[in-house]
Design goal:
alpha+beta; 1 helix; 74 residues; flat; Nuclear Transport Factor 2, Chain: A
Length: 74
């Protein structure tokens, strides 16, 4: 985590060989954002990680899109 960044929330979701980490962080200038990190076991004791950041001003739009995708997927 970058210096001056506070972690406000963290949750882990296990999914077989993959683990998802969802965090809410706050910058020094009080901007809040969400990170979603996928950690995937690719070899014994070796992980690939992929990270996305979503800032608060677009979070509602992303959540709506995920809800729409969920409605189609299930």
């Amino acid at each position: 985590m970058k210096e001056g960044t506070k972690e406000l929330f963290k949750r882990m979701v296990k999914a077989g060989r993959r683990t998802y980490f969802i965090s809410v962080k706050q910058t020094e200038s009080d901007k809040k954002y969400v990170t979603v990190t996928e950690s995937r076991l690719v070899d014994k004791n070796k992980f690939d990680r992929f990270n996305i950041m979503i800032f608060a001003d677009k979070l509602a739009e992303v959540v709506t899109a995920l809800q729409d995708a969920y409605a189609v997927a299930v």
